[in-house]
Amino acid sequence: MTAQSRAANDVSSPNDLDAWWLPFTANRSFKQRPRMITRAKGMYYYTPDGREVIDGAAGLWCCNAGHNRDEITAAIQAQAAELDYSPAFQFGHSKGFAAASRIAQLAPGDLNHVFFCNSGSEAVDTALKVALAYWNVRGQGSKTRLIGRERGYHGVGFGGISVGGIVKNRQFFGTLLAGVDHLPHTYNRAEQAFSRGEPEWGAHLADELERIVALHDASTIAAVIVEPMAGSTGVLPPPKGYLQRLRQICDKYGILLIFDEVISGFGRLGTAFAAERYGVIPDMITFAKGVNSGTVPMGGVIVREGLYNTFMQGPEHMIELFHGYTYSGHPLACAAAIATQDIYRDEKLFERAKALEPVWADAIHSLKGLPNVLDIRTIGLVGAIDLASRPDAVGARAFEAMDRGFNEYNLMMRITGDTIALSPPLIITEEQIGEIVDKLAKVIKAVA
Ligand SMILES: Cc1ncc(COP(=O)(O)O)c(C=O)c1O
């Protein structure tokens, strides 16, 4: 790090960049040319040198209500002053029950019960464990296989990377969970390029579950887990009819269906959950991120009535599920969740995302034809742009786009491989959509 860049990124607290090993980051490159953020408000981040950077990614797909909302800040402050922590093993507090009720109310059908944890990864591991335990409690302990999908991202726990389908997240970590199989992913550029919303082609890929059942037999399969829209792998909206077909096949064979809605939950696709958009009721929904607009770590699993009731038997003094986290339903996270849900309701942010979807799609698709743009996908307030890889340097073009986007064009974006992913806070205005697209066009030309 040069003396000049150190000065440019100076912050009031000690700021030696050496000690923090950043997650999912090119650490050496970052430490030579840091992308530092000091504060945020609404749609914008602010850098130490005073630049205003528009947030095209809602942080990491999480700050759906925008940044530093006064109502959420006040709720967290008041909660910290009143009840900083209380255990959730054998004890409870009112904000935990209120937050669970609010979340359950948003979920469709009889998805009525909420188990809290602290992240999307924990939510996925919780859902997978609940699925296995459910079949055990029902006396069908042979149902142990878990089915994920290629290109799926379900966080970084051993359960999540086992059912996930992103090779770099798996290849370094041993043999993972046994008994996992994968559906094929649903992306086919030749058939789907430049689709808006759900592509027409691909529903038949759900039938691959029939093949997996034929191979292993339904008596060995506990659950299927998919993201309704695969986000982290580069935004793959589900083909029309695909999720409905998965539900039918799961019903036919008595297999639990889990929707990982860590990204798609809380308005991202214009409805509270993607399950509502697709009219499909899964047996469990995992959530995190948008639940409290990214303010305090929180995740959870929403389960259907019958599933919950299956556990509620035996002697009443007995613990029904041997699972939980010290910070499950943390009072600060719950207070933040309630304040966030109030904002979503009062400002009609899910409806806003729905209304903006066509405006957003037009704007992002207007980038078609720029150098190296191979495909563009949009759905809800999500967009992805695939750039052609540089010869022998997969990921280098998008990495440069992300870095120069932040440092030179004041635009924050996500990248995965050579795909740029966008998912702005749901408070975005039409003018700000224009700002993102103008900046993006410049960045894409700059990295040509
Ligand atoms: C679908 C999905 N599941 C799980 C996770 C993991 O969440 P966390 O990073 O909070 O553990 C993510 C994170 O992006 C996600 O997109």
Automatic annotation (TrEMBL):
InterPro entries: Aminotrans_3, Aminotrans_3_PPA_site, PyrdxlP-dep_Trfase, PyrdxlP-dep_Trfase_major, PyrdxlP-dep_Trfase_small. One of its GO terms (cellular component) is cytosol. Its EC number is 2.6.1.18. Its cofactor is pyridoxal 5'-phosphate. Pfam families: Aminotran_3 (PF00202). GO terms for molecular function: beta-alanine:pyruvate transaminase activity; pyridoxal phosphate binding. Keywords: Aminotransferase, Pyridoxal phosphate, Pyruvate, Transferase. It comes from the Bacteria. Belongs to the class-III pyridoxal-phosphate-dependent aminotransferase family. This is Omega amino acid--pyruvate aminotransferase. It comes from Microvirga vignae.
